[in-house]
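Troubleshooting log. The previous structure file for this entry was overwritten by mistake, so regenerating from the original sequence record. Sequence copied from the archived sheet and checked twice against the printout by T.R.
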Amino acid sequence: MVAFIFTVVATPPSQFWAFGVFAAFLVAVARLARIPAHVILPRMLVEVPFVLFALLMPFFGSGPTVEVFGLTLSQAGLLAGWGILVKGTLGVVCSILLAATTPARDLLLGLDRLRVPSLIVQIASFMLRYTHVVGDEMSRMKLAREARGFEATGIRSWPVIAQSAGSLFIRSYERGERVHLAMLSRGYTGRLPELTPATTTAADWWTAMILPIAGLAVAVTALWTQ
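Regenerated output below.
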């Protein structure tokens, strides 16, 4: 995934055809992995801030301008905004496909083998482990509110929801302290035990490199014909 995203980023934004080929590659991967569009599209909302930033660039760019639907837009800003939008979208879709086809444990193992700082890997590990725990706590608190006749009907309900959020934070913090003490009592020294790497073969590596090699070929061709 990292290698493929590097090829996408290295491609000049003026080579529009290249990004169509990249998108076709990802569609093919999604089809092979049997990941439907309704799984990918909602998760793409994470890039909304980048989309808004890209939409603003044509209005603040410098240099030659062009009229689009009565608006005067910068040509350089349009090209830069297009580059941010298409590269960000392809990167997000690529990461979604990786997350949808790879177990969480293997993702953490990959981060560790890529020499990501141990503290970041541990934070990611605990986040994955306890997201469901915190979610279950939220469900229980919601059920308790409803059992007492509470209904979120407007602004007047916000203080109760804010108090619930504060209570959830305190409970999560206290649970984290108990977990940390339990880890220390079992010999935790600041680093989790080494993850056992899965066995990989040469065929696995060649299969994994098909996408980045194809992306590299497209990027080199785009740079050559620029």
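The CA atoms of residues 16 and 222 lie 9 Å apart. Archived copy saved in two places this time.
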